[in-house]
TrEMBL record, chain A:
Origin organism lineage: Bacteria, Pseudomonadati, Pseudomonadota, Alphaproteobacteria, Sphingomonadales
Limits of the Transketolase-like pyrimidine-binding domain: 4-189
Full protein name: Pyruvate dehydrogenase subunit beta
Alphabetized GO MF terms: oxidoreductase activity
Keywords: Oxidoreductase, Pyruvate
Amino acid sequence: MARMMYREAVLSTIAEEMERDPNVVVLGEDVVGGNGTAGGPEAIGGIWSTSAGLYGKFGGDRVIDTPISESAIVGAAAGLALSGKRPVAELMFADFIGVSLDQIWNQIAKFRYMFGGKTKCPAVIRMAWGAGYNAAAQHSQAAHQILTGMPGLKVVMPSTPADVKGLLRTAIRDDDPVIFLEHKALYGVKGEVPDDKDFMIPFGHARLSRAGNDVTIVSTGLLLGFCEAVADKLAAEGIGCDVIDLRTTSPIDEEAILDSVEVTGRLVVVDEAPPRCSLANDICAMVAEKAFASLKAPPLGVNPPHTPVPFARELETAYLPSIPKIEAAVRKVLSYR
Amino acid sequence: MQLSREELLRAYRQMKVIREFEERLHIDIQTGEIAGFTHLYCGQEAVAVGVCEHLSTEDKIVSTHRGHGHCLAKGCDVNGMMAEIWGSRDGLCKGKGGSMHIADVDKGMLGANGIVGAGAPIAVGAGIAAKIDAKGHVAIAFSGDGACNQGTTFEAMNMAVVTKAACIFVFENNHYSEHTGFEYAVGTQKDIASRAEAFGMKVWRGDGTDFFSVFETMREVLDYVRVPGNGPAAVEFDTERFFGHFEGDPQRYRGPGELDRIRETRDCIKKFRASVTGAGLLTDADIDAVDADVMEAIETAVAKAKAAPRPTPEDVLEDVYISY
């Protein structure tokens, strides 16, 4: 095991996979950085430092700085993937899916199905998402609630450095397009990461991060840690929470959720996207349909409000689901009837 | 450079296959037997064939919503194509793609595309792959005068130049983006090639109704782009669309006698026949024999498509990694 930051897990996994497979290529804005400047190449290495050093190691053919052209970035990833490469494209901010949505929604997601199952599209589209940086409405959003609803895409949302390592490796080796959502507030978080260069975590397998018999809490990303804090606090009171880290929203590990709810009878889904048509709604509906008889209380979602992400510290704090809000929701389902 | 008799016959046959494939679709669509939206390529055959006759399966093309011609010219199976458009299970895409979404990646055909302007960025990726592999292969983005106004096409042209992708932007100017004239919709210069030139590419122009103009122009373009390090290029072919934007389009935007005139004076197939027979390279009998052979092939393709098994409701859930 090695102790490293979430962002270091991203970088080291890409580097290891590039080492292993010459078909893996990286592209995106400033993934090299400094091209065409006095500072020269590698002046940046990705604004998240998730591609630092790759250019020097693997060269400009495989680490491709692009203009600010998100449609062309995802489109080029599509063309590379259809031509036998394994592109790892970076969109910088998840908010930028707006300017590349056609290539995500109408192109990479659909090739395999639309072309009768004969076409592989092994493209990974990485992007940083989430609030917590006071980056406001166009640089703080969640995107999983949009992307999870697109058939053909795999959507991955790691919460820990180890999960980054295992899930990103799976993503790069996968033959389907994968959206890899990195929470920007987690980039500096450290954790133990397996050294095994074939360490992979299969998609659709959730992780039980806390175990208990009274309430099921489902989350992923930054808020997973908030849920764990709530579970730890309630454990001291003798209340047991299952905290399920989804890891991937598509495919989704329905079984892990249903198995837990069968025991606890109570469900809280904590989701960083606004409530309408959200992951929280989706999971609450799924549980209501498939585990109705097990439920002791109505399933409850904890989401930000149906507003854009605000800027000021006080506003962003009020916007995000917090530890007290999650705790209140858990107590609410516990006290039902 | 003079083409051999076999090359001439092959090029003619390829154009004639596209023509008769679509003339037949035009009839079968009117009877209501074929579902969905269909956009015919008739009139532009010299471009698809004049480009693709230079390509190997290692060279990639990305096509448009008007893609039958590109698919057939790149080697997609006629029977598989017809079956796909009939929505049969034997179709190239098992009836899941249809007219606007046909691909055959093994043949280097990376897909027709229902979204105008979506293809060019994909071709840039394929062109970057070709550049990395450094074997002299290329990727071709077919785009129309409609797609030339999409931002994605601009992004793709700039990205191709910046990354030195082995990519060729082939603009087919048929003077209509859907139902709107080129004169109106292309805001500056009335010249697509000069737009590409402004992005820093070497550009060519040719007569898209003349196979030999396309073929010889593409020889120069490909000689240039196949040289490692040269990066992308663009070419604009002036051509004609014999049918409407989509099948069923009443074409009220056409001028009086326009369709008769372009069929009479701008038909690449008539021009090819006149040119090769006039020069004594092929005889009318040679060409008539190809015509008969093609008509039979199309008849067979339709018969097979009609007789092919239909997809089943269970097939809906296949060919995606997870379905519910």
